[in-house]
Amino acid sequence: MENPAFDYDNNKHDYAQVRRADKRIFSYVQSALVDFNTVINIGAGTGSYEPQDKYVISVEPSSVMRKKRLALGRNPAINAFADNLPFEDMSFDVSLAILTIHHWPDLKAGLEEIKRVTRSKIVILTYDPERLADFWNVNYFPKVVEVESKRYPVLGTISSILGSTPKVSKIRIPFDCTDGFQEAFYGRPEFFLKEEVRQAQSAWGFIDKDIEHEYVEHLRSDIQSGEWDRLYGFHREMPFFEGAYRMLEFNLTDAST
After folding, report:
1. Beta strands 240-251 and 118-127: pairing type?
2. 101-145 residue pLDDT tens
3. At what angle do helices 209-225 and 142-151 cross, to 10 degrees?
4. What is the pTM of this model?
5. Which end of the chain is less enclosed by CB atoms within 10 A, N or C?
6. How far apart are CA 13 and CA 45, in angstroms?
7. Average pLDDT for residues 83-94, to the nearest whole number?
């Protein structure tokens, strides 16, 4: 894909309300940062998963996102891109990148840059593009999934660039997840009918509006007729879903990786 970055400054969205941190997913982040003090959060967005017990410097290139942070009472973010960070080498104990690397036009430059400014550990939350089809939305929103499969880098590519083998954790997504990414609604398909939900999921911004309308009406019809429940209703009884969401932890101080 020529440019995988979604334009948060010029597209309508209510990201701060739809994409609220889920405390159970936040526990994954907290566990990864427990032994460290200084953190750089890259592609920080509204800062919903930033730990309050650490010294955190946030980097966010979108002016709209930076303003939303301030409206939420969070610390200001630095206006910079991942591939050109205004910090000295090894400035932070840990670098954190939560659902952001799929927006980076130059993945290699961005990853090399965050490695440069990090002393001990890189933590990346991302999606495994090879497992995106595990979710039922591939049968309702095929072009959305196709877009995502092109935007998200293969996990092996990330490892190759960083020159390290990560600890990979599957993120268990709770049924009542408060963060409105796509898999969060694995058992609540009705949420995809809400325009504000789709607007806060960047993949929808890469498909034609007519196709989006077609997809939404297909899902609406299947929900109303009971067809969705016939095919996938068992998801409504699942307390957790393990799909393509992953946390990668790269230990830069471990010579064995």
Report:
1. antiparallel
2. 999 999 999 999 999 999 999 999 999 999 999 999 999 999 999
3. 120
4. 0.94
5. N
6. 13
7. 98
